[in-house]
Structure formats: C-alpha cells, structure tokens
Write a structure and sequence with these properties.
Strand 4, helix 7 and strand 5 form a beta-alpha-beta unit. The protein has eleven helices and eight strands. The protein folds into two domains: 146 residues, Rossmann fold (3-Layer(aba) Sandwich); 79 residues. The strands form two sheets. A six-stranded parallel β-sheet has the order 5-4-1-6-7-8, with helices on both faces. A two-stranded antiparallel ribbon has the order 2-3. Helix 1 crosses helix 2 and helix 1 packs across helix 5. It is of the alpha/beta class. The chain is globular, with a radius of gyration of 18 Å.
C-alpha cells in the first residue's frame, strides 16, 4: 500500500460528515422510511449515493430557498416521472427523517485517535463542510474534538460550496500554507473535485455512501476504504 510522509505537509483539512461523523445509518434509515411510506420502487443501495448528495445540497439552504430552488434540486433519477409536488413532499420527508436519525449518529471508530495522532505531530488541522459551521462546532464539541480544529469553514463562510475550491483556498490562505503542503480528506466526488481544483493532495475515504468506483473516476490522489486504511496511508 502507498503511504504519505506527513513530514512533507503542514496542514490537514478534514470533511466532517462521512469522514469524522458517521451519518450512513441515518441516511439509510431515512431512505427505508421513504421507500415504505411512498411505495417507491427503487433499490435502496442504488439510490443512497444520490440521496446523500441531495441531503448535502439541501442542508445548506434555508427552507424558503429550498422551495425556490426545488425544481432544480429535485432533478434526481430516483424521483423521475413523479409530479413536482410529490417530489417535494418526498424530499422534505427524507430530510426530516434524516435529521431525526442523525441525533443518534456517532463518529467513525478510531477517527478520534487518528486526529489526536496527527495533532501530536504539530500539523495544523481544519474542517471544511458543506454544512453550517455551527453544526460542525456542535458535533466536534459533542465528541471532545474541538481543541484539534481551530479553523472551521462551513457553507455560511463561503459564496460557493464544494465542489468549488473556495473553502479550501480560504483555509490555506488563513494559515499561509501552500496547496502542495496541504492534504484534504473527504468522502464524496464533490470533495475530490474541490481538492483537485485547489491543488492540494486529495485523499478520498470510501467510508460514506458514495460508491468506490464513482470516487475512483474522479481521480483522487489516494483512495482508501476506511479509517484503518487511512491510518496506514498516513503512517500513524
């Protein structure tokens, strides 16, 4: 397995959901509820990734903007051939169910010790999320990870969310560190695209709901399957 020599780097930026915070079960249960309630004829495994993208997209909009942009937001494969109002009802139901189930979500096994090990190496750490920065602060606080991340950038801190590189470039600029001395760790194709556009080293962990083969198509610099493989890659 390839490895990264952390001595060459000064800054590691983490995505939150799907990398630190494990929301996989919350999305899966929300989809199962939606399939049952609306008698959707879909393969749950096939639509999870699409719904994960939809939820990521919706959660950084206030409700009026969701409704305003809902026609474009709801152009997803699993809702095709339905009326606009039914699409909207299903999307809002899925989002509400997801938010309920998310309350019970926890962090990925071993990610806390991995973060602590990086911190001990005197590397700068930051969070970039397409969620609200306050949400990230609450999750980090809940799992005693706050002290490791002095910099948190959420959708409310940028004009364009990932796949735009704006958030990454903002963090890099703040710390006055070159992109080539920066590692970004994410779990979605939007993360890979943002990392590549920013010129950082992009490590993708297939621990979220995106399919490995889809992530591979976006050509991350490194692709691992879980926290344990990430530890090996970073030689921790």
């Amino acid at each position: 397995m390839k490895t990264l020599n952390l001595e060459k780097y000064k800054l590691i930026i983490f995505d939150l959901d799907g990398i630190i915070y494990n929301i996989n079960d919350a999305i899966t249960k929300a989809v199962e509820d939606g399939v049952e309630k609306y008698k959707l004829e879909v393969e749950i495994d096939e639509v999870l990734q699409e719904i994960a993208h939809l939820i990521e997209e919706i959660q950084h909009y206030p409700v009026p903007k969701i409704i305003l942009n809902s026609f474009d937001l709801l152009q997803v494969e699993f809702l095709k051939d339905m009326s606009y109002m039914k699409k909207l009802r299903i999307a809002i139901f899925l989002f509400n169910q997801f938010n309920e189930y998310r309350e019970d979500s926890t962090i990925f096994d071993g990610i806390d010790t991995l973060i602590e090990d990086i911190y001990k190496k005197d590397l700068k750490l930051a969070i970039l999320t397409n969620n609200k920065s306050q949400y990230a602060e609450e999750i980090l606080e809940k799992f005693n990870l706050t002290k490791y991340f002095p910099t948190i950038i959420g959708f409310n801190d940028v004009s364009e969310v990932k796949p735009s590189p704006e958030g990454l470039l903002k963090i890099i600029e703040k710390w006055k560190i070159k992109p080539e001395n920066t590692i970004f760790i994410g779990d979605m194709s939007t993360d890979v695209d943002a990392g590549k556009a920013a010129g950082v080293i992009m490590v993708c962990v297939a621990s979220g709901l995106a399919k490995r083969e889809d992530l591979k198509e976006h050509n991350p610099d490194y692709l691992v399957d879980n926290v344990q493989e990430l530890k090996k890659l970073l030689q921790l």
